[in-house]
Design goal:
- By secondary structure, this protein is mainly α.
- It contains eleven helices and no strands.
- The longest helix is centred in the C-terminal third of the chain and has 17 residues, at about 195-210.
């Protein structure tokens, strides 16, 4: 069963680009504004304009891919991440984005996990790879492997609420409600506006309540 884990934040953010020509920067800045406002169609169109001038920018290809992914155009997004990797085959950001698209967009968990493993082989503390791999493993049914990834992620970035929320989701799925509640509470302590953690905490409290044995009915038959 696909778990209600927080979507990895990297798809919802844009990369800060290095210095580039003024014309390319103009189109890129416009694209970033559209992206932030949620107009991903116009964002992608403006990244295209910037790419006409800076075709070898891996960050521009990645940002365009993110915009397309947010439009649900997963195959087109993957083409962008592939293009970025043609320019730099070992770019961890591009590798993570490709793996996320394969996992969250196409349910190709094994392919995604293999890519995340490549990133983690070079940098075992890569937060996005740990979160992405954890999500892929969870959705593929490997809860123990997923929990291991999220535990490592919360060590790498102890103040990121998404890692704690995702860890809690897996613990709840495993029936470890008290441990899950601790994680959701931790996420809310870090970010009181984290809606997914709040909802998950309420659901876990309901789980704990249902888990309690029913109180025995009061009867005087056996009293003396």
């Amino acid at each position: 069963m696909r778990l209600a884990i927080t979507i990895i934040a990297v798809l919802a953010s844009i990369l800060v680009l290095p210095a580039m020509g003024e014309s390319a920067k103009h189109w890129s800045d416009q694209a970033n504004d559209y992206f932030i406002s949620g107009d991903f169609e116009k964002a992608a169109a403006n990244y295209d304009k910037a790419l006409e001038l800076e075709p070898n920018s891996t960050d521009l290809w990645n940002n365009k891919g993110k915009a397309l992914a947010n439009l649900g155009r997963i195959d087109d997004a993957i083409s962008c991440f592939d293009k970025s990797l043609e320019i730099n085959a070992t770019n961890p950001a591009s590798m993570n984005l490709l793996a996320i698209a394969l996992s969250q967009g196409l349910n190709k968990y094994s392919e995604a996990i293999a890519i995340f493993d490549q990133v983690l082989q070079e940098n075992p503390s890569d937060y996005d790879a740990l979160i992405g791999k954890g999500m892929a493993l969870a959705n593929d049914g490997d809860l123990s492997g997923s929990l291991d990834c999220f535990e490592k992620a919360t060590i790498v970035r102890s103040r990121d609420p998404s890692g704690w929320n995702n860890k809690g989701v897996v613990l709840r799925q495993m029936g470890r409600y008290q441990d899950a509640l601790t994680c959701f509470t931790k996420a809310i302590t870090i970010d009181s506006s984290h809606e997914a953690a709040r909802q998950n905490r309420e659901l876990t409290l309901q789980d704990l309540e249902e888990e309690q044995p029913a109180a025995p009915s009061m009867s005087t038959d056996n009293m003396q």
